[in-house]
Design goal:
Layout (H helix, E strand, L loop, with lengths): L1 E9 L5 H17 L2 E18 L2 E13 L5 H11 L3 E8 L1 H20 L26
Antiparallel strand pairs: 1-3, 1-4, 2-3
């Protein structure tokens, strides 16, 4: 199973109804292409780092979806994003491999941490050899 994150930026002056319609349109495209939508996250209006198509602000939308077998679905979604005039920028990232790698590293780290003895078990630095106590000076008679 492949997992993708799609983020796209819409023009900032759009009414909420139009934003909802575009989100529904792309979620419909994903479900028609045998994809499963895991999460839709609306980040809202934010400042862009630089001007994009004359805009300084944009409305951010994140869609996290997974696909069992249709590898051409992400290309179809991007093709349709390209023709929508209200979309000023988009990016699709495949994240399943990165998540697997992160889980593997976390498992290694947990295993390594479970092998380490607690600090009270004396695995610290070796102690310096003890010096004998200085002898008392001889008593003068």
């Amino acid at each position: 199973m492949r997992i993708y994150e799609l983020i796209f930026i819409l023009k900032p002056g759009m009414p909420d109804e139009e934003i909802d319609a575009i989100v529904e349109q792309f979620s419909g495209i994903i479900t028609e292409g045998e994809g499963v939508i895991n999460k839709i996250d609306r980040w809202g209006k934010r400042r862009l780092a630089y001007r994009v198509k004359g805009q300084r602000d944009g409305y951010y939308i994140l869609i996290d979806y997974s696909v069992e077998s249709n590898s051409k679905l992400s290309k179809e979604v991007e093709r349709r994003l390209r023709v929508v005039d209200d979309v000023i920028k988009y990016l699709t990232v495949r994240v399943d491999e990165a998540r697997k790698r992160d889980e593997k590293l976390k498992a290694k780290r947990d295993k390594r941490n479970s092998r380490k003895p607690a600090p009270s078990e004396g695995r610290g630095l070796p102690s310096a050899p003890q010096r004998p106590a200085p002898a008392a000076p001889p008593e003068a008679e």
